[in-house]
Design brief:
Strand order of the largest sheet: 1-2-3-4-6-5
Helix content: 25-40%
Radius of gyration: 17 Å
Distance between the termini: 25 Å
Strand content: 25-35%
Number of helices: 5
Largest sheet: 6 strands, antiparallel
Order of helices and strands: EEEEHHEEEHHEHE
Structural class: alpha+beta
Number of strands: 9
Length: 177
């Protein structure tokens, strides 16, 4: 692997322990991949930084690791869990996070809009309060989310991850990425 996250392909091994199995998304920061931990077989999401971001100054790399360590210590149920953080031999920075199944808040809002609808007040509250609770824990630890937007909020189903079914009656869990 070189330092450019876009050079990661299905089948590649990241940090000797994560086998890439798919692409979940790409953006200006880099890319997010689906992967499997080779030892535990746990499914994870690997966020890889583009080489421009990964190859930053020593201070930027230190800040990345410091923020990743703080984020990994967050335990609020509405915050995505961070399992691992590292740097490949080629210098690409990565974060291994829990694999979530569901839609982003951005997609849900687009779906409402395309149907000519808006979220009901209770729906807004049921999403906003968990986001604020997640952010509160992070802020109490000195961490500021610098990219909070609907694309960085996942609406997951409680039992969808457990039984593979996406039942309409399952409780929706809000996760801040």
């Amino acid at each position: 692997l070189d330092g450019d996250a876009s050079a990661v392909h299905v089948g590649d091994l990241v940090a000797g322990r994560y086998r890439i199995s798919g692409v979940l998304g790409r953006g200006g920061f880099g890319a997010v991949y689906q992967a499997e931990h080779t030892g535990t077989r746990q499914q994870v999401a690997i966020k890889m930084m583009l080489s421009d971001d990964a190859g930053g100054s020593e201070e930027e790399v230190r800040r990345f690791f410091r923020e990743a360590q703080i984020t990994a210590a967050l335990r609020h149920p509405n915050t995505v869990r961070v399992f691992d953080v590292g740097q490949t031999d080629a210098g690409a920075l990565f974060i291994a996070m829990e694999m979530l199944h569901g839609d982003t808040l951005e997609k849900s809002l687009r779906d409402f809009s395309s149907d000519g609808q808006v979220m009901k007040e209770q729906q807004v509250v049921s999403v906003a309060i968990p986001i604020l609770r997640s952010l509160s824990e992070a802020h109490n630890r000195g961490l500021v989310h610098r990219d909070l937007k609907p694309a960085n909020v996942m609406l997951t189903r409680l039992h969808a991850d457990m039984d593979g079914q996406d039942d309409d009656e399952d409780e929706v869990i809000v996760k801040v990425l």
